[in-house]
Amino acid sequence: MLVNQIAVFLENRTGRLLSLSKALSDSGIDLVSLNIADTSDFGIVRMITSDNEKAAKALKEAGFVVKQTELVSIEVDDTPGGLTKVLEALGDSDIDIEYLYSYAKSNSSKASILFKTSDIEKANKILKNKKLI
Amino acid sequence: MFNEKIEKMTRSELDNLQSVRLVDVVKRVYENVKYYRDKMDAIKLKPSDIKSIDDISKLPFTTKQDLRDNYPFGTFAVPHKEIVRVHASSGTTGKQTVVGYTQRDLDDWSECAARALSIAGCTDEDIVHVSFGYGLFTGGLGLHYGSEKLGAMTVPVSTGNTMRQITLLKDFGATTICCTPSYAIFIAEEIEKMGIPISEFKLKRGVFGAEPWSDSMKERIERMLNIKAYDIYGLSEISGPGVSICCGDSFGLHVMEDFFYPEIVDTETLKPLGDNEKGELCFTTLNKQGMPLIRYRTRDISALNHDVCPFCGRNLVRMKRVFGRSDDMLIIRGVNVFPSQIETVLLNIPEVIGSHYKIIVDRVGVLDTMEIQVEISEANVTDEIKSIEKIKSKVEHDMQSMLGIGSKITLLSPNSLPLSEGKTQRVEDRRKI
What we know:
The complex is a heterodimer. By secondary structure, chain A is α+β, with helices and mostly antiparallel strands.
């Protein structure tokens, strides 16, 4: 299934992440997942929230530039080998992964894997064929 | 003295020599350079109106832009076959300022550089280690020919490879080193790190120039290398190093005024100012053939003093060590950088907002650093690191090709740089010079 993600470019400066977080909390938005890809100079914050449209609006109002992207999301068993199966299926079909992250839900035996790929359709089809989604 | 006749000339003898040479150079540029003829015709000034050095203020000024407009050879005053060398300024826009020299111009320049070295105490007994760059930049070749003319043993090391520089300084027993003041400190620090006692070197003096430096830097160099440091001044448009040199006097540098006539003018009104008054330094090349310049505005801020030098007794006018610039030019590791060049590069890269930038100059140890902060454009904000890195390397690459020196590029999110309502302060120079 597809999941909408919000990405924000942050320069490496004290207090930037705090103001981002504050913009979201002030609008009553809950973070489902948060992931930061960083280099020495800047970072890209990738988030999935309880309401991405509302979150994007709140961030824009706070002066952030927001980029929304579709990711492929798969739910797997939170047991050894859950991720490996997915990666094998994608690797066998030459699907490139730009980046990937995951989060485990509390009170659940399932974990979510989210990844970005240039060919979402193909990835979805393969995962369906393999009965992974 | 290297040239006692000139160096001991009285003020009235200097006035006479300068008057004769000014009348001649004005006549030559009027007859041979369209640019000057047009400029003088425009204010109805004829060469015959210039009768003595006192008439110099009637003449129009020349600027770096005028030289760029006439790039590359438009201000040459002799046929190309008489030009035997060209140099170009370190300021690297697409259009450099090009200077052409006849053989006599090179001889005069060597005379000035030789005289400068001699005023700093060098003789034909000395070994002169030249670590200025050899090439289009005038530093290396200028001091090289000066040192040879003086009869000193000349070591043309040029820049780079500090280990080899130190080995040669020690093994050859160089008594004089010529380089930028920051490179002198770098060499001194390397010697310290290598644990070689300074007593193993025979250095007596250093001739330093091509970038601004402070008294505290001077003291540090003198202490670390156990030498006396002399300030040398020059610019390629006028000829190169040797336009003026410090004799050890506290006011400033003696100008070779038989060749280069200095004036200080008010930066706003361009009216000539009197002795000890701070203003923009202008030069008229009195004897040059290849590319004579009339009242060339250097943009360097200085002051003049025509009194007899209390330190060495020479009459040659002294100029204050340059205080700063009347334009926004930055000198980064000896290279001239204009913020407008940086802006041009940024405006040509659609991935960034070229008008939203900031330049931060600093000095880490002895090395100048430059950081350019620029906002990434909204359309290019992305969720992927590699696309941002790609923009960053593009800016880095284009900047390096334009400026000729590396800089650190920092991308910022859109609308993060404050633009003030008045004039936005784009340059922050944190160097303590």
